[in-house]
Amino acid sequence: MNAARTFATARRVLRQLAHDPRTIALLLLVPVLLLVLLYYVFDADRRSFDSIGASLLGIFPLVTMFLVTSIATLRERTSGTLERLLSMPLGKADLILGYALAFGALAVVQASAATGVAVGLLDLDIAGSPWLLLLVALLDALLGTALGLFVSAFAASEFQVVQFMPAVIFPQLLLCGLFAPRSSMQPALEAVSDVLPMSYAVDGMTEVLKHPDVTGDFVRDVAVVAGCALLVLFLGAATLRRRTA
Amino acid sequence: MNKPPPAAEPPAAEPPADPPAVHARGLTVIRGRRRVLDQLSFDVAPGTVTGLLGPSGSGKSTLIRAVVGTQAKVTGTLDVLGRPAGSAPLRSRVGYVTQSPSVYADLTARQNLDYYAAVLGIPRADRAAAVTRALTDVDLTSHADDLAGNLSGGQSSRVSLAVALLGTPELLVLDEPTVGLDPVLRRDLWNLFHRLAAHGTTLLISSHVMDEADRCEHLLLVRNGTLLAADTPQALREATGSDTVEDAFLRLVESAPTEPAEHPLRGTP
Fold first, then answer.
1. Where does the ABC transmembrane type-2 domain lie (chain A) (predicted)?
2. A176, A206 contact by CB (below 8 A)
3. B194 Cα to chain A: minimum distance (Å)
4. Domain locations in chain B?
5. B31 in helix, strand or coil?
6. Any idea what DSSP says for residue A185?
7. What span, in angstroms and rounded, lies between the C-alpha atoms of B77 and B74?
8. Cβ of B70 and A83 within 8 Å?
9. How remote is the C-alpha of B31 from its chain's centroid?
10. How far apart are CA B124 and CA A111, in angstroms?
11. Which residue from B73, B102, B103 is facing A245, i.e. has the nearest CB?
12. So what's the ipTM on this one?
């Protein structure tokens, strides 16, 4: 682990993005536009907009960072740059943390834009601090980055890697409590939802929505999401092999 | 690196002077169920340009990947600069250029080099100068700020080569670095390789183009994962009574005892 190499990697990933303004625009605008869409979908039901909107603020960064990271690292694996980097004095942690830093920074901008529009323009009514929303969004983004990095090891092509999105993200989306309260699910499914990290991401957002103070549940949710992100990052590091067949 | 009990080496035959930059004894690589390299034994003398020649699919890339330590399932002895191939201290001492250019298509040539220079641990203050020097070496200064993805095939493989020239490695391992380059540039690069060797760098360069053989001081001829010959181009021609290394290669193939059972067909990793 070497700070200079980690920062160099983060800077390189951001420079790659800088050459791709369309991707940046999509990353920043799509969540905002979807929130606006949601606002008018729940035109007559502001309470539903509040709860679903808050949940989405946690889900957007997870999904987008998952997609961006899984494609970026798959390209790194298939283009030969990963093999070259691993033949150089670059630690696996330097590479993974570099990616996490770069996409984390991007997620801060994305989540700030989405949260700012939701709270400022769309009157999303939250009891707690918007900073806590931002914190959860950032951790969700890191979780998405970690998951994307991990699954890219199991995909041989872009076709395969985008299929991991419905495979890894959709079940969590269905079970996270967005569509139905987790306590009302069939008990087996509720148990499954208890071990999926997105459930805690959405719970954390709901805590901020309902409570003015930092609750014990919120701390637990944040800790679970952060712990999962670290665990999956660690698993992702294990998929990077210096020697391949 | 898997190391079986020290192989029975002919101790007297080794010149005692400089230790070899690459030292292989009984080097074998298995991929799938195929023996891609079978019991190779050779030395690469330091400060020389050694050509690794053979038809595509002969195992050149696998041998190169074994030397830089990215190939799995390597058995036998393989020491690079006195250490087992692939060991951590070698990572900044060995430069490696893959067959297809390994650079980021969505970065400019200069940004690519800047990143790799940081990874190689070149101090920030020296980085810009090292990058410019590497770009000059491969004659790409006029395209330094073009995206690598917009460069021609030959140009982007030169960006890839420039990466390996950063940080002045002691051993440069190049997998087909001159494929697809025009004759002038090819000559310039070979001149560069010899300049580097004159300054003490060891170069191991693979090629399937036999007419590049005479630019090397020493040759390793491989075919079907076995070593046909290891000698100077002149000695090879004389020993086989041929005019060119290509003829020498053909004579060696014809006089080889038996065809190995396996035909490793994959050339690129």
1. 18-243
2. no
3. 24
4. 104-168
5. strand
6. S
7. 9
8. yes
9. 20
10. 33
11. B73
12. 0.89
